[in-house]
Structure formats: C-alpha cells, structure tokens
Design a protein that fits this description.
The chain contains three helices and five strands, in the order ααβββββα. It is an alpha+beta fold and 90 residues long. It has two domains: 1-39; 41-90, HU Protein, Chain A (Irregular). Strand 1 and strand 2 (48-55) form a beta hairpin. The two termini are 19 Å apart.
Length: 90
C-alpha cells in the first residue's frame, strides 16, 4: 500500500475529501516525527509504541574486500505493536 492508497482509504472511512485526508495524514506524520525527536517515545494505546533507541558503534566487514570497517553509532526508530493490533493481525 502506498501513501496515496492510504489517503484514499482515510477519505472514504471519514467521509471527507482526499485533500483534507492528506492534510490530516501529513499532520499526523509530522507530529509523530516531532514527538520522537523531542521525547523519544510515542504510545498509541491499542495500536503500539514508537521508540527511539541507539545502536552502538561496532566493527563490521566490507563484503568485497573482507576488510574490517567501523559502523558508526546511530539512532533508530523501533515499533512495538500493541495487544489489539497483534490480535487483529493473527
């Protein structure tokens, strides 16, 4: 599913225009990004939790040359589904 498909689905379910559905989706995405940058965690009860976690610096290997390389530390966003979402997917 693409973003355009999701906008169509939101517009149909909420009985609004595609333009207003896209604005709402964009506002939601921007809000989630801001919250994760500022607080590092967002919980949507029944849906799941978005958490920013850090990965430590580590040593890896270049697959072509087999030489060791340093993979830098990074922050990643992880999603943990909530109970209701887990049960509905089963």
């Amino acid at each position: 599913m693409t973003k355009a498909d999701l906008v169509d689905k939101i517009a149909a379910k909420s009985e609004t225009t595609k333009v207003s559905a896209e604005r709402a989706l964009n506002a939601f995405i921007e809000s989630v990004q801001e919250i994760l940058v500022q607080e590092g965690k967002l919980t949507l009860t029944g849906f799941g939790t978005f958490v920013v976690e850090g990965r430590k610096e580590r040593i890896g290997r270049n697959p072509r040359t087999r030489e060791p390389i340093t993979i830098p530390a990074v922050k990643v966003v992880k999603f943990r589904p909530g109970k209701i979402l887990k049960e509905s997917v089963k």
